[in-house]
């Protein structure tokens, strides 16, 4: 959906607004709000000295408004790949390897066989608890929540039909990225697959997205979206928190992306025999970007 198309609040987008406000309120009010993502979002610890719940809450707003890199930008890709991975498979199991908001879990729940089990892994308890609170009881029954670091989690004997996550690998430098990938290979069934995305091009090891003008326009777009969508905010301090964390995202978010499609494919082929990549259209994330949509088959076992 084009950014300018989001300005008109249709009934469909009103439903999205109500969902994002609910996710925001749940995350912001979590009992875990004294926890900080020191192992995850290191760049945000100064902004979240009281805990990381505000960060995850704000990211839900940015995510569903189409303001940041999000699995919703690749919704059809994920749903198609995960439907194929889980349907007609008895006892199918999918791992979500890292998430900041419930978005990826929402997509996986809809895409997979209703009998499929879903394990949700993150180093931080905040998004895990948010998922438990925002989804229906019958959806939560399908899910297992695991608070562990993706760098060390090895499945504890479970074998998965699919492992999925959105633009997660580029949160790690190359050594860590390869370590995560090898953990995935260990956890996948021989006919399992990894389904993910990876930002193409740009500066490798980038800290902060775009230049000062891009970041200013991003904040203007956010203010306009909040106004146009009628997003209720109860206090001035709440608004300041939202805009402050959005500004921190644009200025501080650290990504190890920047590779070409061929470089991405070469990296993935260290661990998978068959790597298929399609290029996305433009995705707004402070600046316009394109992503590699990756399905990796034939995990190379030791």
Account of the protein in words:
By secondary structure, the chain is α/β, with parallel strands linked by helices. It has 10 helices and 11 strands. It has helices at residues 11-28, 53-64, 75-86, 103-111, 125-134, 137-140, 174-187, 212-229, 236-252, 261-268, and strands at residues 93-97, 117-122, 143-147, 160-165, 188-199, 206-207, 254-255, 272-279, 283-285, 287-289, 291-299. Strands 3-2-1-4-5-11-8 form a 7-stranded mixed sheet, sandwiched between helices. It has a two-stranded antiparallel ribbon with strand order 6-7. Strands 9-10 form a two-stranded antiparallel sheet. Strand 9 (283-285) and strand 10 (287-289) form a beta hairpin. Helix 1 crosses helix 5. The longest helix has 18 residues, at 11-28. It is globular. The N and C termini lie far apart (42 Å).
